[in-house]
Write a structure and sequence with these properties.
Rossmann fold; 7 helices; binds magnesium ion; binds adenosine-5'-diphosphate; alpha/beta
């Protein structure tokens, strides 16, 4: 089963008398353990599509299925819960709480979901290790570089063991080298953990790392390119997304510094 299936999805916004068709009819599947890149010019509907995929918003017409569940068929409360448990978000601004350590920031989604503190901290430490930041656990965000802060944000997205990690321009606040490293990290998470990831990005290096690129224009899919960037050691089992092994260094690190 696809993690995400969009069936002829549209989204329009009304501003006064003007109707904007932000997404004009998109059908798309996202497969388990796939790294999908969404690219396209500003205003082409990337963020709107990502909000629909993540259940932040519901389509005007069409269906968005997350693990087979139509996101419009459930209540707002159920959708909020589903989102909190099954989707990890990474944004352009890292959105870390400045007074909490890296470890505490990563543990927060678990604590908000009622996981006991001790378990939350253990799982947060594991997630931090999976982004190779175990040694920064006690650091405040202000003591870390932008790239490190975004890796903490990635760990925070991963800590719930989501079905899907979504990133809207996660490299937008980083220089191109650091941005490229963050995209490479997503590649590792797909290959090492079987994580499913969808990122919207301008970062050119996404073509070096994604399994597939979907290019949007005016709210429609302009084209789709399938790439072969999976590392040889990639696990084939989608079930591997269930565990976060802290083993390092990963085999895929040899691809790139
Ligand atoms: P991108 O992320 O590719 O830059 P967006 O999805 O943000 O594009 O926007 C696509 C189009 O939809 C743009 O024309 C934008 O102005 C419009 N749009 C997005 N969100 C809203 C909204 N909440 N209200 C009105 N128009 C919107
Ligand atoms: Mg956008």
């Amino acid at each position: 089963m696809s993690v995400i299936e969009a069936i002829n999805v549209t989204k329009s916004f009304h501003t006064g008398d003007v109707e904007v068709n932000a997404v004009g009819g998109i059908s798309l599947q996202v497969n388990s353990a796939e790294l999908l890149g969404i690219v396209g010019p500003s205003g082409s509907g990337k963020s709107t599509l990502l909000s629909l995929i993540g259940g932040i918003d519901t389509p005007t017409t069409g269906q968005m299925l997350l693990e087979g569940t139509d996101l419009a068929s459930i209540s707002d409360d159920q959708r909020t819960l589903l989102r909190r448990r099954r989707i990890g978000f990474v944004f352009q601004a890292f959105n870390l709480l400045p007074t909490l350590s890296a470890l505490e920031n990563v543990a927060l989604p678990l604590e908000l979901d009622g996981v006991p503190e001790r378990t939350a901290m253990e799982r947060a430490a594991e997630a931090l290790q999976s982004v190779n930041l175990g040694h920064r656990a006690a650091h405040l965000p202000s003591m870390m570089s932008g790239g490190e802060q975004q890796r903490v944000a990635v760990a925070r997205a991963l800590v719930i063991k989501p079905a899907l990690v979504l990133g809207d321009e996660p490299t937008g606040n980083l220089d191109s080298k650091t941005g490229s490293q963050v995209i490479h990290l997503f590649r590792e998470l797909v290959d090492r953990l079987g994580q499913t990831v969808v990122i919207v990005t301008h970062e050119g290096s996404v073509t070096e790392y994604a399994d597939r690129i979907v290019r949007l224009r005016d709210g429609l899919v302009e084209n789709e390119v399938i790439l072969n960037n999976r590392t040889a050691a990639a696990p084939q089992s989608p079930n591997s997304a269930r565990s976060l092994p802290s083993t390092s260094p990963p085999a895929s690190q040899s691809r790139r510094p």
